[in-house]
Amino acid sequence: MNHLLRNGDGHLKNYGVIYENDFKDARLTPIYDVITTTIYIKNDIPALKFSDGKLWWKEKTYKTFALKSCEISNKEYDEIIQTCTNAILKTKIEIDEYICKDDIKKFLQKLKDCWSERI
Fold it and tell me: What is the pLDDT of residues 29-80, one digit of tens each?
């Protein structure tokens, strides 16, 4: 979601792990402190360095990480990306329905433009 929303401020502190007994039942908490930084900083880049460096990573990088580090299959990866993409598309529709003032309209259009790039 940080990539799709263009959140360059995604740090490790924005993620948490919870568990009840030991590391075997550990799971990620929902991410928090997520904004579209590229609406304020046009050419913003991710705060975290990944295998491609500090840039908006290539899909191959995500798929490799998902498979090797998270044991997420390509099919599961595609489903996750589709769920995230659908959420953004739904939000864009809701934005279009909400727009009623010119100042809001300009801001929300810039936000939608930031979300236009795919992985």
Answer: 887 888 899 999 989 998 888 776 778 888 898 899 899 998 999 999 999 9
Nearest to 32 by CA among 14, 8, 7: 14
* Cβ burial 32-54 (10 Å sphere, 16+ → b, else e): eeeebbbbeeeebebeeeeeeee
pTM given for the model: 0.70
Q: Which residues contact 99 (CB under 8 A, 6 or more apart)?
A: 105, 108, 109
User: How many whole angstroms separate alpha carbon 80 and alpha carbon 111?
Assistant: 22
- CA nearest 99: which of 87, 108, 111, 88? 108
Let me know the angle formed at the C-alpha of 80 by 75 and 86, rounded to the nearest 5 degrees: 125
